[in-house]
Amino acid sequence: MGEQVPDGGRKTAEAAGTAAAAGSASAKKAAPARKAPAKKSAAKKAAAKKAAAKKAVAEKAAPARKPAAKKASAKKASAKKASAKKTSAKKASGKKAAPATSSAALKKAPAPRKQVVAPKKATASVPAAPAKTVAAHPQGESRTALVRRARRINRELAEVYPYAHPELDFENPFQLVVATVLSAQTTDLRVNQTTPALFAKYPTPEDLAAANPEEVEEILRPTGFFRAKTKSVIGLSKALVEQFGGEVPGRLEDLVKLPGVGRKTAFVVLGNAFGRPGITVDTHFQRLVRRWKWTDETDPDKIEAAVGALFPKSDWTDLSHHVIWHGRRICHARKPACGACPIAPLCPAYGEGETDPEKAKKLLKYEKAGQPGQRLKPPQAYLDAGGRPAPPLGAG
């Protein structure tokens, strides 16, 4: 018979079996808990890969963002410079900085200057006259247009006065320089009536330098300012004898050193006695070149420079004769004969005088021998100051 196990031992065995089964069950439950750390590590690796991919993409995109960063830094730098300029301007002027819109206003400021030189505005100052004779006002006239207009005026005057010459009678440079000094504040005709007696008694610089001033004054009395003129002609005669051996010098710098001789007189002598070009800026010349808008200068030296720049040097002497003759005969100071003027279409001052042709012809002024300053009706020919035939000057 087999060996029997007591009840206590049986219970103990059953308890042991139960405990073993419980242990195996708990072991099974614990197994999944061990797999969890493995899943967490895989998730970490996946996240690391994604982070690496994002970093790579960011590194590729980084160069494209750098120019934008540079532009931003450049803007900041320019803003700093602008603020620095504003602060320096504030310190220099002691005033508040202008608002930001002032820069735009300053850029637009030059616009009105273009309208100042509009030729249409200036035509209002020219009196009404027939369209064919009214010249456009030269305000805003270009330099090229001014030169062309000035030279055309000179060509027109050359046709009207083809034999224009100095209206002082002389036989040598000495007589010319003395006659030119005497022509101040009087007419050439009056001088021509006076110099024959003077040169007959004192034909050379040596003779006039040794003359009795009272006797010279008596001869020069009709020319006006005879005492001052006597002092000048005797003084220049002495200077010619002492400094130039009794000969009239042919250089401007020497001529202007003589008593009573200025640039105007010097250019008359140089141009007509020595054939050296010069511009004679007398009262007629000054009046006409300003009327023609060749220059706005009033100083004779500046007028000479401005007008001389418009013409070749070879034209200067004849130009002076043309302008002076025109000023004496047609373009008078008070009543210019605009209606009889041959250059009316080129003159910006047209209308300052009489524009009616018939009335204007009566204003033409001629000097006939023995009748200084007499106004005559224009026939076909008259005698000029030297008794030579003169043109009708617009009479038809």
From TrEMBL:
Any Pfam family the entry gives: EndIII_4Fe-2S
Stretches assigned to coiled coil: none
Bias type Basic residues, positions: 36-53, 67-94
Protein encoded by which gene: nth
Family from the record: Belongs to the Nth/MutY family.
Keyword Cell membrane: no
Region (Disordered): 1-143, 367-396
Cofactor: how bound: Binds 1 [4Fe-4S] cluster.
Lineage of the species this protein comes from: Bacteria, Bacillati, Actinomycetota, Actinomycetes, Catenulisporales
UniProt-recorded name of the protein: Endonuclease III
Keywords, alphabetical: 4Fe-4S, DNA damage, DNA repair, DNA-binding, Endonuclease, Glycosidase, Hydrolase, Iron, Iron-sulfur, Lyase, Metal-binding, Nuclease
Top-level taxon of origin: Bacteria
GO molecular function, one term: metal ion binding
Record Gene3D superfamilies: Helix-hairpin-Helix base-excision DNA repair enzymes (C-terminal), Hypothetical protein, domain 2
Residues annotated for [4Fe-4S] cluster binding in this entry: C331, C338, C341, C347
